Amino acid sequence: MRFQLTEDQQSLRETTAKYLSDAVPVGHLRKLRQHPAGYEEEYWRQGAELGWTSLLVPEERGGGSVSGNALVDATLLAHEFGRHAAPGPLLSCNIAASVLAGEAPTTRHAVVLDELLSGSQVVSWCFTEGHPGGHRPEGLTLAIDVEGDELVLHGTKRPVEAAAQAGHLLVSGRSGDGLTQVLVPVDTPGVSMELMETVDLTRRYWVVRFDRVRLPVDAAIGQVGGAARQVEHQLQLGVVLLAAETVGAMERGFDMTLEWAFDRYTFGRPLASYQELKHRFADMKTWLEASHAVTDAAAAAVDGAEKNAAELVSVAGAFVGQYGAELVQDCVQMHGGIGVTYEHDLHLFLRRATLNRTLLGTPALHRRRIAELVAEAES
Amino acid sequence: MRFQLTEDQQSLRETTAKYLSDAVPVGHLRKLRQHPAGYEEEYWRQGAELGWTSLLVPEERGGGSVSGNALVDATLLAHEFGRHAAPGPLLSCNIAASVLAGEAPTTRHAVVLDELLSGSQVVSWCFTEGHPGGHRPEGLTLAIDVEGDELVLHGTKRPVEAAAQAGHLLVSGRSGDGLTQVLVPVDTPGVSMELMETVDLTRRYWVVRFDRVRLPVDAAIGQVGGAARQVEHQLQLGVVLLAAETVGAMERGFDMTLEWAFDRYTFGRPLASYQELKHRFADMKTWLEASHAVTDAAAAAVDGAEKNAAELVSVAGAFVGQYGAELVQDCVQMHGGIGVTYEHDLHLFLRRATLNRTLLGTPALHRRRIAELVAEAES
Amino acid sequence: MNSTRDAEDGDGEDGDRQDTAGFAARARTWIEANLRRVDPSVYEGAFRTDLTEEEELAEVAQERQLQKRLHDAGFAGICVPRCYGGQGLTPAHQRAFNEALNGHEFPARIQSPTMAPCLAVLLEFGTEEQKRTHVPPILRGEELWMQLLSEPGGGSDVAGVLTSAARDGDQWVLNGSKIWTTGAWWSDWALCLARTNWDVPKHRGLTVFILPLRQPGLEIHRIEMLNGSKEFCQEFLTDVVVPDSDRIGDIDEGWTVGVRWMFHERMLYESPLVTFPAGLSRSFASSSYTNLARAAGRQEDPSAQELVGEARMLDVVNERLHERMSRGIAAGLVNDQAAAIPRLFKGVAAVRLRTIAFELAGMTGGAWTPDDGPLCDCGVDFLMRQTGSIGGGTTEMARNVISERVLGMPRERSADRDIPFRQVRRGPSAGRRHG
Amino acid sequence: MNSTRDAEDGDGEDGDRQDTAGFAARARTWIEANLRRVDPSVYEGAFRTDLTEEEELAEVAQERQLQKRLHDAGFAGICVPRCYGGQGLTPAHQRAFNEALNGHEFPARIQSPTMAPCLAVLLEFGTEEQKRTHVPPILRGEELWMQLLSEPGGGSDVAGVLTSAARDGDQWVLNGSKIWTTGAWWSDWALCLARTNWDVPKHRGLTVFILPLRQPGLEIHRIEMLNGSKEFCQEFLTDVVVPDSDRIGDIDEGWTVGVRWMFHERMLYESPLVTFPAGLSRSFASSSYTNLARAAGRQEDPSAQELVGEARMLDVVNERLHERMSRGIAAGLVNDQAAAIPRLFKGVAAVRLRTIAFELAGMTGGAWTPDDGPLCDCGVDFLMRQTGSIGGGTTEMARNVISERVLGMPRERSADRDIPFRQVRRGPSAGRRHG
Lengths: 379, 379, 435, 435
Prior knowledge:
The complex is a heterotetramer, with two copies of chain A and two copies of chain C. Chain A has helices at 7-23, 26-32, 41-49, 70-84, 90-102, 107-118, 228-263, 275-303, 309-335, 346-359, 363-378, and strands spanning 122-126, 143-147, 150-161, 166-175, 178-185, 191-195, 197-198, 205-216, 265-266, 269-270. By secondary structure, chain A is an alpha+beta fold. Chain A has three domains: 7-118, Acyl-CoA dehydrogenase/oxidase, N-terminal domain (Butyryl-Coa Dehydrogenase, subunit A, domain 1); 123-219, Butyryl-CoA Dehydrogenase, subunit A, domain 2; 228-378, Up-down Bundle (Butyryl-CoA Dehydrogenase, subunit A, domain 3). In chain A, strands 2-3-8-6 form a four-stranded antiparallel sheet, with no helix packed on it. In chain A, strands 1-4-5 form a three-stranded mixed sheet. A two-stranded antiparallel sheet of chain A has the order 9-10. Chain A is globular. Chain C is of the alpha+beta class. Among the domains of chain C are: 4-107, no CATH class; 279-393, no CATH class. Chain C contains 14 helices and nine strands. Chain C has helices spanning 2-9, 17-34, 53-72, 91-100, 111-125, 128-139, 254-266, 288-295, 302-330, 340-361, 378-383, 387-390, 395-406, 427-434, and strands at 145-148, 164-168, 171-182, 189-195, 206-212, 218-222, 232-243, 247-248, 367-368. In chain C, strand 2 (164-168) and strand 3 (171-182) form a beta hairpin. At the A-C interface, strand 7, strand 9, strand 10, helix 9 and helix 10 of A face helix 10, strand 9, helix 11, helix 12 and helix 13 of C.
C-alpha cells in the first residue's frame, strides 16, 4: 500500500478495516473453521455495500472506483482482507464482475452482474487446472467446443473458490487455438463439484468437473475463441489482488511480532535487544517494504495498461509469493512453540500467505514467466 | 577429515602440510600468478616423493596407500592442498595413475605410470566437455572410433588441467554406445591446446582439441568401448578429491576469520562479541563439520565399493560445492573491504573453493544426479 | 573401511566382540520370531494427528506390552546395570540390537522421554532407593515418564523457571505451570524442575523432583497445534505435594542436574538407553520426494529434480554429520556442547525439507483432495515447518551454544546474571501474568 | 497513474510545470545535438579493470571536458543556486534532464563523490567563501573531489577515526591514513574527517576539513583488488597542513557534518545534484541474464529460466523499492534512516545476482576463453560478489540502522560510548598498529 492515499481511498480502506474488525474478529474466524462456506451470506452482502465487488466495474455498469485507478483501489480492500485474514470470495467476485462489465451484456449476464454488485450472488472463477502449466491461459485444457448453436464444456477445474456458494461459474477454457469464457449456471446438468482440503481456515475450494456440459452459444462472454487477451488481463488482476492481500497478511504478522519482541523478555532483557533477532527484523522490514513497492507498481501498471504490466505482475507474484510466506514463517520462529498452536493468532496470517502463494502460479512459475517475458522483450 | 587418523595417515598429512608451508607459502603463491605452469617442476617432483601420486596405485604397481583405504588417504593430501591453496596437478595425476594401474599394462603405459609416480611426468585427464551434460560420462561426445588398427579421436575437451605441462593426455571419449579411454602423447599430430582464464591463481586449464588424432589401438587403456565403469569410478575419485580439497580451503578460511573476529575490535569490543556474527560463525562451523562428515563418508564408500557410493559422492559434490564457496564468501563479508583485496590471503582459498565448485559438476548438477540415483534405487 | 570405523569407535569393547556377535544373532532370531514387520514410514512424524483419544490409549497400552516382552526376553535396558533389572551389557550390544530391529515394530512412545532423558537422569543422579523403585518398572513398561521442564513464556530460557517448590517440613509444595510435554495425559511419572530459592541468581535456586502425573492438584490440558495435532500438553500444578525423598540431587543444585538432563535429551539418538531401529534414527525419509515430483507430474522437470536431489542431500548429510559428531563426542575429541552442531543442521534441514515438499506440490500445496496421494497435507506440513527449528531447543539457542561453548566466543550479555531471580525483569506481559 | 504520482511527489513544483516541459525539450535538443549515443552497458560495473593508467587519465580528462560543455550549455548544477554558478532550478528539472540523457554519454566519474556527497556537503555546511571558491570550478569540471572518510581497520565504525588533526595557530596538522577512496589519484580536492579531540567520547572529538589531494605529505597508493581492479586508493597523511579557513563546520562538531555527509552518500541516486541517465540509475541491467543462459546452452532449461526470472525480479523490485522509499523520505512520511532499507535490499540482491550469473555459467564459471562471450569473467565477478554488501556501508550496518533507527529497537551495546576516545579498546592488532 502506498504511503499516501487520496481521501477517498483512505476512507474506503478505513471503512473496510473497521467493518472487518467488527464482523470477523480473530475469535470469530476460528468458529468459521466449521462453517461450510467459511462466511455468512449477510457478511458478504454488507461488504458488497461497502464496494467490495464494484471497484473494477465502470460507473455506467453500476460500479465505480474511488480514485480512477480501479485496481489500485481494489488492492486496498485486498490489503485489509490480508490484515484481517478475512473470509469471502473477494478474488472470484471481483474478477467475474470485471469480466462481465468488460463486454457488451446479454440480458442474463446483466442480471448476474447486478447481483454480483449487490452481493446477492457469488460467481466463482474456474480458471486453473491441476496439471503442470494449468496456471497459465496457454496451458488450459478444458474444452469449450461449438456444436450447432450450443457450447459443450468438458474438463476439470481446480481449485475453484466458493463454488458451492456460487450461482454461476465463470469458466475459462480452450476452443481450438483460442480461448473462450462462459458463464455457467451451477445447476447445469453435467456440472459436479467436490470439496477440497486447504491450508486456509475460512476460504473454501472445490474441484469442479464439467462432463460435456451444454449451454446456448450466448452463454459465452465476448467472442468464442477470442478471449485470450481478456483472460490474460483478469489473470493479472488476480495475481495483483493476491499479492496485495498477502502484503496485508505480512504486515499484520510483522506488527504482531514486533510488538512481541518488545514485550517478551528472556534472560532479563527484551527479545528486541538481541542483535541476531534485530537483524532478522531488518530483513523482514525490507521484504515488507519491497512487497508494498512492487505490488503498488504492478497495480498501477495494470490500471494504466503500461507495456511492462505483465512483467511487473509476475515480479509481484514471484517476490510477494516467496517473501510473504518466508516473513510470516520467521515470525513463527520468533514466537517459538506458541506460534504453531491453534490458539495463537499468527497462523491465520500464515495460512493466508501460504494459500495465496499457490493459487495463480507459485513463485517459481512466476520466475519462469518473467524469463519468458524478458526473452520476448529482447528478441 | 576424520577426527582420528592412523599414525601413518597422520604422518602423511603432516609431512605434506610442512612441505607445502615451506615450499609454497602464500607470499610465494602470489608470485606464481605469472608462472606459465603455476608451479615449479622440482616442487612437483619432491611432492611425488612424499606420495602425492602413488596412493591410488597398488603396491605391486609401485604405489601404496598408507592405511589400506586408498581414497581416504588421498583426501588427506587434497585437504592439505586446500588448506594451503597449493599448486600442482594433484587431481589429474592421481586419476591417471589410478586408471593406468587399474588395467593390465602395455609397455608404454607402464613407463608413463612409473614417471607419474616419480613426478617426472604429468598426465592430464581430458574428461569434461563444454556443453550441457559434458560433466557426466553418458554426456561425452568426443568420438574415439576404430579405423582398421587405429583409433581416431575427434572432439574438444575443456577445461583440461595442466595440459601444457603434460607428457600424455588421458582422454575419455565415446565409441558408439560405449566409452573408451586412450593415453595420447601430447605431441601427436592433431592435438592442439589453448590456455583458458580461470578464477584460480596457480592452477592452469586448457581447451584441448583433437582433430582426427590417430593412434594405434593399443593406446587404449582397457577395452575399447568398455570403459564406462572405469570412467564412472575415476569420476567418483575426482569428485571426492575436489570436495576434500574444498574442505581444506573452507577450514583455512574459517580459521583465519575466527582469529580475525577475536582480534578485531569495533565500537570498542571484538567482532566475536556481536551476536549476529556469532550466529553466522555457528552456521559456518556447522557447514564445515558437515562437509568433513560427508566427504569422509564418500571417500570410505568409494574405497569400500559400497552400493551407496555413487550417491554419497554426489551428495559430497552438491553439499561441499555449495557450502564451500558460501562459507568462504561469508568470511569475506566479515572481513569487509580488505577481504576482496589482492593483498589479503583470503581470496586464495575463495578461489580454490570457487574453482572446485565448477570442475566435475556444479552443485545443481550433482543434485540432479542424486535425484536420478534415488529414482533408480526406488524403481 | 570397517577397520577404521572400529579404530574410531573407542568403546573399548574389544573383549566383548565375540559376545556382541552372539548377542546380535540371538537378537535377530528373537526379533524375527516375535516382532511384527512394519513399514518404517509408520514411525515418521511420530504420532499421527488423526488418532482418536481411544486409539492413542490403545496404542500406548500395546507399546507397554511390547516393552514387557522385550524385558522378559532379556532385551530391555541392555546397558542398564543388572541390579536395576537391566542386562549390564555395552553400547555395542544396544547398537547391535537396534540394527537387528530394522523394519520391525518397537515401543516408540516409550523411548523419549522415558528412556532418555528421564531414565538417564535417574541413573545418573537418583538415590539407590529411587533407582530400585523406578528403574525396574520403567524397563517392564509399567512406568512411562515425562519431563516437566519448559514453561509457558519461558522459551529458550530454560533456567528461568517460575514454578515454585516451597519446603514444608519433610515435603515440598509445588505451584506453577509446565508446557510442551509429549503425551503427559497417558504417562505415569515425571521429572520436574522447580524454583526453590528466589533470592539467589537464576541458576542457583533450582531443584529437581520426581512426581506421579495422576494426582490431585495436577491438571493436564492437551494443546491443539495449528495442524490439529494434540501431541503436546500443558500442566497446571496447584499445591502439588512431593515428599523430600522424591527430590533428585541437592536442594538448589537443580541446574547441575538440568544441564545433564538437557544433554541426555539432545543425545537421544546416540543414547545407549534407547531402543529403536538403527535405520530410522535421524533419517527424514526423503525417498518420498521422488514420489512427490511424480505425483505433481514433474518427474522430468530439472528444477524439480534439483529439489528432490537437495532433499536427499540434506537427509544424507544430516545422518553423516550426526554420526561424525557423536563419534567425536563419544571419543572425547570434541566437547559435549558440540551436540548443538547436528541439532542446528537438523533444524535448518527440517525446515527446508518441508519447504521443498511444498514447492514440489505446487498448486496442490494450497488445496487438495484425498486423491492427491503423497501431495496431501504438504501445505499443512509447510504451515508447521518451523517446529523442526523450535522443538527441543531452538536453532537460535543452538547457534548461541556453538559460538560460545564450541568456538569460545564471548557470552551474550545476560541481564539476569548475578542478581536475585526475584529482581529479574520479565517484561510487560510476563509481569502481568506472574506478578 | 500519473496524477497519483504527482500527488505523492510533493516537490511543490506545479508552478514550474510548463517551464519544466520547456526545459526538458531544450535539454533533449541539446543532448541529441551534442552528446554521443552510447550503449548504457558501458557504464555497468563503473570503472573497467582493464584500462591502463594512461587510458583512465584520458577518460577522466574527457569527462572534465564533457562537464565543461554541460556547464557552458546551462545544464551543470541544475539545482545549484545561480550565485555559485548553477542554474537555480528544481529537482524536477534535474529529473527531466536525466530522462533526456538516457542512452547518451555523461561524465560518470564526476558524479560520485564530487557532486554527491562532496558538493552537497559544501552547499550545506560550507562558508560563503568556501562555496564561492569551490562550487563554480566543480560545476566546470575543474575540481574533482574525493572523500577521505574510511580508515584501514575502521570497518563499519566510521566515527572511530584515528586520523588526527592537531591545532597549530591558524592551521591544523593532519596525520593518519584513509582508505577506499575511488580514483583519489586523479582527483583534486577532498573532504576529510579527522579527530581533533581524544579526551571526549568518540563522536564528540571530530572535525571536517577540505584539502587539495596533490600536496607534499599526502601519499596516494592504489590498492589492487583480487580481480585486478585498482579503482580504490589508500592515502597516507604525514604532517599535512590545512589552514583553519578550510575547516567545514565547527571544531569537534564534525559528526554533525558526517551524519549528513553519509546521508548524501546513501541518497546518491536520489540527489538533485547528480546528473546521470535516469534509466541507468539503480538497475543491475539483468537483461543480460537471458544471454548468459543462452551462451550456456540452457535457454530451454526450466531451472535456468527460474534463475533468469529471479535476476530480473530482483532488479525490478530493487528499483521499485528505491522509488518507494525515496518518495516516502522526500515527502517526510518516513525518516531519513529508512534509506538503509533500499541499501540493504540492493546489497543482498547484488550478491545474489552475481551468484545467479555464476550458476548460469556452470563449468565456464571456473575457466573460460574469450570465445565464451557473456560467460567470461562470471567467475571473477563471483569472487568479488560481496563488494555489493560491503562498499558504501555494509549490509550489517544497514540492518543495525533499520532495527534501531527505523523500528526503534534497543541500541547495540557500545563499549566506546561515554568514555574518552583515548581509552577505547582497539583489540590486539589495532593496539599494535596504533599504540
